[in-house]
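Handout, section B. The chain below has 334 residues.
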Amino acid sequence: IFVGGGILRAEAWEELRELAEMLQAPVVMSANGKGAISARHYLAQNMVAGRELLPQADVVFVAGTRFVQPATSTWGPRPDQTVIQMDIDPEEIGRNTPVAVGIAADLKAGLAELVNRVPRHNRKRPSREEELTALKERIDDLLFELQPQASYAQVIREELPDDGILVNESTQVGYWSNLGFPVYEPNTFLTSGYQGTLGYGFATALGAQVGNPGKRVISINGDGGFMYNVQELSTAVRHGINLVTIVFNDNAYGNVRRIQKENFGGRTIASDLLNPDFVKLAESFGVEGRRAEGPEGLRAALRDALASDHPTLIEVPVGEMPSIWPIVFAGRRD
């Protein structure tokens, strides 16, 4: 089963879990769909695992997702595989890959009907917990090799409550989080998805905190993207929005700089940044500013910030980080 943000918009996560458990079908979630099934569930898988699971499947059920990455990869559906797609928008059905069966439906109602109808045809299936847990652990080990992104994300996950909200960004830790960040509850991982909208995150996180006053919200940013909406520090103070903001500062549009170096003989242009002192900048707005060195430094600063009752900005100085794109785009068609 491949799912995306449509499951969350339809609030269809319980129906999805029931169907998946009934079929013992692993659920591969896109970045937009993270949290549709808790990451603690053995059926919950990410797109890296999807590369191994899809080629072995006899039937692929696609629900509430455009299915772009699998459909544009060499490991995507083969002509001999049956693809069934359910979406509320009929135009999305079969748009990116041919389907044998298309179901235009609200996902909550559609999945509920499948939960009712499938048992009369479904044979009892043995648990795949051992197999799929081993796959999850192997993929987690692979992703953890990407350092320091994995360690920073791990610290955030360990300090953020299960129902806390992480607002992602187009930054190195953010790219890793799209795959590797465990999400335990629906609508607690917010991302711009395929759009990759640099700079949207901080302002979005302010809105998420206002809309969820009883939950803790963390905004992760790169230095370049954060400066798109830096003036909203004033909004946080003016309206008492108790947001925790992390700025990973490499003094560059880091992803762009790495691409330039790799593709143009080490030459770069307009990708290095001359940044302010982010701690002093935050304090000048009336936001508490902290600087944290390394993952454990971030842990201490984050723990204090989550316990406070006012907005906090944590600057984390970082260097160049290894690229996650070879893992993300493995098997992608040119």
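Note. The chain is about 40% helix and 15% strand. Compare this with the example in section A.
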